[in-house]
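Hello,

Following up on my earlier ticket. Below are the two sequence lines again, exactly as submitted.
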Amino acid sequence: MSVSNTWDADLAATRIRELQHLPGALLPILHALQEEFGYVDESAVPVVAEALNISHAEVHGVITFYHDFRHKPPGRHILQVCRAESCQAMGCDKLIQHMEDRLGVKIGNTTEDEAFTFLPVYCLGNCALSPAAMLDGRPYGRLSPEIADFLINDARRRD
Amino acid sequence: MRIYVPGDMAAISAGADAVARAISREISVRGLDLSVIRNGSRGMFWLEPLVEVETPRGRIAYGPVSSDAVPGLFEAGFLEGKPHALCLGATDEIDWLKRQERLTFARCGITDPLSISDYIQHGGYRGLANALERTREGIVEEVAQSGLRGRGGAGFPTGIKWRTVLNAIADRKYIVCNADEGDSGTYADRMIMEGDPFVLIEGMTIAGLAVDATSGYIYCRSEYPHAFRIMRRAIDAAYETGYLGASVAGSGKRFDLDVRLGAGAYICGEETSLLESLEGKRGQIRYKPPLPAIEGLFGKPTVMNNVISLATVPIVLDKGAEFYRDFGMGRSRGTLTIQLAGNIRHGGLVEKAFGMTLRQAIYDFGGGTASGRPLRAVQVGGPLGAYFPESLLDTPLDYEAFAALRGLVGHGGIVVFDDTVDLAKQARFAMEFCAIESCGKCTPCRIGSTRGVEVIDRIIANEDRNKNLEVLDDLCELLLDGSLCALGGLTPYPVLSALKYFPEDFHGNAG
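Thanks for your patience. The regenerated structure is below:
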C-alpha cells in the first residue's frame, strides 16, 4: 500500500472523470482518490460535487459517514488490528495494548514519525485464526505480541 | 501435474504466499514441469497453509506447511504423495471433511478459482443450463420448493422474495448481492468469493433470468480486498467467455455484473443501507415498506440476497429442489455453513444439514477451545447474537430453535470464549459497537446505544445497582421495539443474554 502521494488536483480530476459515468459513482470515486493519494483532500469536495451534480454537503456527508475515508494523509504504513468478538476471545485487547506501547500511540491514530497509521477494524473475516491483523494490505493470523513486534520493526527497516 | 497452495486470505495470513514462492523455487531448481495452483481454502484453517499434490491415488494433503519445510517435502517425495511428518493422507479421506455435507462449498478449495474450465469440469454452469430451459416462473418455483432461506441472517424464504420481484412491473430490475459480511466470526462469503467466485456469478445470473433483471451488483466490504480482487477477475473472465454480457451462454439473454466496494460501515450489511451506499449515499437505512423487492436499487424492484444464498442457487437448479430440501430439519431446509471462530482449536468452515447441535459443532468439529481452558460462553450469529452458556450447547442450529431462545443463527458464525471471558465487558462492547456503527437515523439506536454503555458502566461500578439494572432493561426494550432496523433492534440480545446467563459478571467491585 504505502501510497500517500502528494495531492494533485489535475490527477484527482482525471480520476473523477474516469468514473463519474458509473451509476452510484460517488463511492468508487472516493475509493479511487484514496487509493491514489492515501486520503481524500477537502479540495476534492466541490470537484466531485460538480461532476456528479450533487451538493457539497452530500459529498462531505458521505466522506464523513464511512470509516474508511481519511481526511489527511496516513502514515507510511497502515496497520489494522481486529477488535471484534472473535479476536476478543483470543486476547486482542492485550495485543492492542502491547502494540500501543510499542508504537507510542493509541489505536485510531498515526505515530509521531508518521511511520504507522494504527487502526481498529471490526472483523477481517479471518476469525478461525484470531487475533487477526492487516499490514499494508497483507493479512496476518494468530498474531502474537512477538510477531507484531517483528512486523513493526521489519516495516520500519524497509522505510 | 498440479500442486495446490491456497490463495485464500486466511491461508495467506498463515504464510501461504511464502510457501507458494518456496515451492516455485524448488520446482525451478529441480527443473520440474509442475504448475502451482492457488486454490481456495478447504476451510481447515488450523492446517493452513494446506498444500495438496495431485497423485494417481488422488490429492494428498500436507499441512500446516511452512516455507522452511518445503525443501524437505520435496526430498521426502511429496510429489508422489510419500509419507512425511506433515502428511495428512488423501484429502478426501480427512475425517473433518468427510463428515460434512458440502453442497454450496462443493468446489471450494478443489478448483482453480479463476479457471472457468475448471469450474465447468466440476459441475459448474449446469444449474444455468437448466434455468435457461425453464420459464421465469419455473425457476422461481424451483427455488421456492427447495426451501432455501436467506443465509445472510434473517432467514427469509428466497423463493418468495424472487416471486415478489418477478411480479413487480418495471422497466428495469436489479440483482444485488450482499457481500458485506461484517459479523465477527463469519467468513463463508469471503471463502466463496475467493475460492469459487463463479458459483456466485452463476447464482446471480440465474436470479437475473428468473426475475427478468439484466443487471447485478455485488457489494463487497472493503475489509475484504482479496475477495474483491478475485471477484473482479472472475467477472472479467466470465465476460471473456460469454457467461456475462449481451448473450449469456449464447442464450440471447443479457446479464451484466459489477462488484463494488463498501467503505467500512457495518450498517451497510443491512439491505436498505446497502442500497443507499450503492447509490452513492450515506449508508442510512430506509423505512420499510416499500420493500427492496418493490422499490430497491435506484427505486427499481431488486432481488437482494446474501452471497451464500445466491451461491446455493446453482446446485438447486442443477440437482433439483427435492435434492436440496431433503437436507435439514423442520422449516430450516438444506445445509447451514457454520463458521467456527474465536477461542477454538480447529477453526474452520463446516457445511452440514441444519440440525446439528452447537455442542457437536464446537466439540466434534472444533475440538474445544484453543486455549485448552473450559468453554464458558458462545456467541452465535455475530455481534447481534445472544451469548449462550455451556448449558445451552445442546440447542440445534436451526432458525426456529434459536429464535425461541432469543438468539440468532444469523450467518452461521460461532464464536467460542473460554473461562477468562468477562460477559459484562462483552455486553458493554455490544452497546459500544452499536454506538460506533449506528447510522444515526433512529433515536433508540443512535442515542440508546451510548446511554447503554453508560448504564452498563454504572452497573459494573455498583452505582445504584438495582435502579440501573431497571434502566438497562427498559432501554433494551426500547431498542428492541423502537429501532428501525436490526442493529438497534437486536443489540439487546447479547446484552440481555449476558445479564441473564452470566449475572455474576456484572457485580464488578461489589464482587
